[in-house]
Amino acid sequence: MPDQSYSVDVEKNASTEKKQTAASTQDVQDETHTQPTIVFPEGGWQAWSTVAGVWIMQFATFGYTNAYGVYNDFYVREYLSPKYSSSQISWIGSVQLLLVMSMGLVTGRAFDTGYFYPMILTGTLLYAFCLFMLSLTQPEQYYQVFLSQGLGLGIAIGITYLPGLCVVSHYFHRRRALALGIASSGSAVGGVVHPIMLNKLFYGGVGFHQGVRASAALNVGLLAIACLMMRTRLPPKPNRNTSLLRDFLTFSRDAPYVITVFGTMLVICGIYYPIFFLQLNAIKNGISPSLAFYTLAILNGTSVVGRVLPNFLVHRFGVYTVVIPCVVVCAVLNFCTLGIHTAAGTLLFAVLFGFFSGAYIGLFAPMIASLARNDAEMGSRMGICFTFTGIGGLLGTPISGALLTSRFLWWRPIVFAGMCITCGCLCFITTLVLLSRQARERRKLAS
């Protein structure tokens, strides 16, 4: 009897284990069906057509933001002077930069849920309206310029900026950093073309108002072409039943992410000072205006190379390992401007700073994307980070303008910008150390 009872229990247990195993297998199969593995083409006609469309859009939008140094110089010396100070005028560009970045707080989640095309079309129409309204402003009417260029144009560019970068991730995973670098280089090329064009228009026979209209017509036409070229590939992400506040609280417990966000805010607070003030600095140092007008174009020209070449190293060395040396060089170059007073020194600075600042800007999005645990939260992580980064852009240039004063005390903003970039670099180094430690702990657990 005892033997028979024991035999029956063994058979029952075996039967139960088989059922549990079968149920577990079925659950895994069901999960596999509900969450299929995403295959990225890593190239192809539609993929590179989308990258080209994003490149054109970056050229016409963020590339125009990179040309704000021309507007800043024109406003300070002629259009809004002497009624408004350099610091007050700097708020126009800084608010525009804030909105370009911080709109990602909304557009990141909207992209995740499938609103790519409505955002692109809305941004294009608003961009056209605001730029043509800028051409109707009058001299010394600060509020008109601020509303059309600082507020309106910033919102318009911000609506299109993050969705354009995120759509590239629909086609690339292994080569994502390279594709993003190529796409974002459009803004650097725009930073070459737009300053030359705007200087020729503003200071030539066309004048400010007709010059703005001419640039508006060009950029709106390019945006229309970009809208036709860009295509989404993946379906909208399923609703993760999370709010923006819940995402923020979740990400705030991720130490590497929080430190990186703080670092990007500090770096952007300082890195745009040379871009916005380079042309004005060159002219005040006695460099011929005909040569000074090309300094921004040279800076943005080398930025094109900087946004592409370092991205080839990311797959091998890691994004932080590439970013950190580039930011260190930017900080050193910024301090070097304390001793630059000649045309040769200014041009050399423009070449070097353009390359390394372009490398940082080109690696910015891949750096944030590398911290996402899955593609479903990529838009939210980038949107939150871009918002705080925009705050740095909002504060950086007005503080630099206030430190500069009407007496043009250049050493003050140079030291401020250099310290911001240096502290941001220290944040990235801390993040790299934390990520390396986490990787070692995972390897220990796996072994």
Automatic annotation (TrEMBL):
Residues 1-32 are annotated as: Disordered. Residues 9-20 have a biased composition (Basic and acidic residues). It is a multi-pass membrane protein. Keywords: Membrane, Transmembrane, Transmembrane helix. Residues 249-447 form the Major facilitator superfamily (MFS) profile domain. SUPFAM superfamilies: MFS general substrate transporter. It is found in: Membrane. Belongs to the major facilitator superfamily. Monocarboxylate porter (TC 2.A.1.13) family. This is Major facilitator superfamily (MFS) profile domain-containing protein. It comes from Hohenbuehelia grisea. The lineage of its organism: Eukaryota, Fungi, Dikarya, Basidiomycota, Agaricomycotina.
